[in-house]
Specification:
The protein has 250 residues and is of the alpha/beta class. It has a single domain, classed as Rossmann fold, CATH 3.40.50.150. The chain contains nine helices and seven strands. Strands 3-2-1-4-5-7-6 form a seven-stranded mixed sheet, with helices on both faces. The longest helix has 18 residues. The chain is globular. The N and C termini lie far apart (42 Å).
Length: 250
Amino acid sequence: MDELLRATHEAEREHFWYRGFRLFVEPFLAQATKGMSHPRILDCGCGTGANLPALEKHGVAFGFDLTWTGVTYAAAAGHRRIACATAARAPFPDDSFDVATSFDVLYCLEDAVERAAIAEMYRLVRPGGAIVVNVPTMDVLAANHSFFVGERRRYSRARLRSALKLAGFRIVRITHTNASIFLPMLAVRLWQRARRVGKTTPVKSDFTMPPAPLNGLLSLLLAAEASVLRLMDLPIGSSILCLARKPAAE
């Protein structure tokens, strides 16, 4: 995981996937914090802290990550409200945040740890608060990067909805994302899977910064999709994005 963090650190600002993701999550964060004054937002599994500036547009951002490498990069970028901790047990009091986020973390956790991590977000968020969760979907898209990061599952909307409801959350909105690049992504992933048949050599991550013209084109496609996503949910894509709330105290 440290190797992956180092490989992606430099690309996180400009890579088309991260550009698109930040555009997708923006309206979800706006809805999650609507009506709140200076909300406290916790990024559970913040990696190198690349998403903390997006959270800071909506409130006071905190973060934690399991890897010391990620925390070190986040600190070097000037983030101070960060900690090194596991998603299943964060060093914060009950009901201490208005919003918690989990961006592409749950899918790498063992089943019991995944349930504990979701329960931990429920503990950390105040009654009436919200969570914003992003996870990968569609097993057919699992390929080199999936094997490299130790992916344990991909989600359907029903599976994510069930996992969050089991912890006590109420689903507000759930949609696929990355629909605009789904077909080329599917072609690449199927090609990678075909090349792996019968091979036992260790897999490497396929995460690289594409040539500038291609990166620009894919960024434009995702920006256009983000505009559509503000108006409607999407039925297909490589990720699922969800907004859910902890019931308010009666």
